[in-house]
Structures are given as structure tokens and as C-alpha cells.
Design brief:
By secondary structure, the chain is an alpha/beta fold. Helix content is 46%, strand content 20%. The chain is built from 7 helices and 7 strands; from the N terminus they run E-E-H-E-E-H-E-H-E-E-H-H-H-H.
């Protein structure tokens, strides 16, 4: 299993392609979220996430994908598709109900062409601890919004992050 990961991006016509290599994790969620936000502001509405070379995903990364799909649903245009999804990642997405929020396909299925030119997602500025907690919180809130069963699964994570961000975490309660 690879210890490095990268996110490559490219466009073909009006579709944004995102290719995940290695791990989809909280570490590359900040940059991905910012990139997608910019692309939506530029008018792009169709996003394809290629998971062919994605070894695994954590809940923050999957929550970031859920957030993208929910944002596009809110806008009322476009959508998100995950393609070239292996059995393991399909299981992860399905276990969180994300296969009900966006298309999860084991191959590109002849829809669209992969861009010839992709570039590495520019690294986002390293987030501070508070910003990182906010990104993780928003990702898990998106998971809870995507499937009500996730609210129960991530109840403790959500509660902890909200307390931390509100300054009422255990350390603060103890006076540290």
C-alpha cells in the first residue's frame, strides 16, 4: 500500500475530472474542497472522481465527496460520479449510503473521455488545527445529511468536534 497520495485534476468540455492516487484522506480533503468550490464558482457543475488508483478513503474524504454532491443538489444542476471504483471503495461508499447520493460505477462506462492532461491539485495552505477540525466537522455533517444512519455512526465525532470548535472541549473544561 502506498504511503503517498495525490489528487490530479483536469477538465474536458464542461466536466471536471478528479483522479485520486493513493489515499483519499483528511489530508487532501482541504485542497479538494477548495478546488471544487472554485470550479463551482466558475460555473462547472459536472464532476467525475476517478478512484482507479485510490487504495482507500477515510470518512473525512468521503464526507468531502458527499458535501460536493449535496452542494450540487442544492444548486439544482449537475452532479458527481465516482468511476473506476473497486469493490472495497464501493463497499465503503455504500456503507455510508453515498451510493444513493451520487453514482458509483466500477468503470467509466463509455460516458465521457478522461482528459489527456491532468495536473496535480495545488497544495492548499497547511490548515491550522482549528481549520482542520472545521473541515473534518463539515465532512461528517455532510455524511449525516446524506444518510440519517450516519448521524448515529458519527455522533461522537460530531459532538467532540463541535465542542472543540466551541471551546468547550475536555481540555478547556479542565482549565488547561
Amino acid at each position: 500500500m502506498s504511503t503517498t497520495s495525490s489528487v490530479l485534476v483536469g477538465c474536458i468540455e464542461r466536466t471536471v475530472w478528479v483522479k485520486v492516487e493513493g489515499r483519499g484522506s483528511f489530508q487532501n480533503s482541504v485542497g479538494l474542497k477548495e478546488f471544487v468550490k472554485q470550479m463551482i464558482q466558475r460555473g462547472y457543475r459536472d464532476f467525475v472522481v476517478d478512484l482507479r488508483d485510490c487504495e482507500q478513503m477515510d470518512s473525512t474524504f468521503m464526507g468531502t465527496l458527499a458535501g460536493v454532491a449535496l452542494r450540487l443538489r442544492e444548486i439544482g444542476q449537475g452532479g458527481l460520479r465516482a468511476v473506476n471504483v473497486n469493490e472495497r471503495n464501493a463497499g465503503l461508499l455504500g456503507s455510508l449510503g453515498l451510493d444513493q447520493l451520487f453514482a458509483v460505477e466500477d468503470a467509466v462506462a463509455g460516458r465521457g473521455t478522461v482528459p489527456e492532461s491532468v495536473s496535480a491539485l495545488p497544495p492548499a495552505p497547511r490548515p491550522g488545527p482549528e481549520e482542520q477540525k472545521q473541515v473534518v466537522l463539515e465532512a461528517h455533517e455532510a455524511l449525516a445529511e446524506a444518510d440519517s444512519a450516519n448521524a448515529t455512526k458519527f455522533k461522537d465525532v460530531l459532538e467532540y468536534l463541535r465542542q472543540e470548535l466551541n471551546g468547550t472541549g475536555a481540555e478547556k473544561a479542565l482549565g488547561d
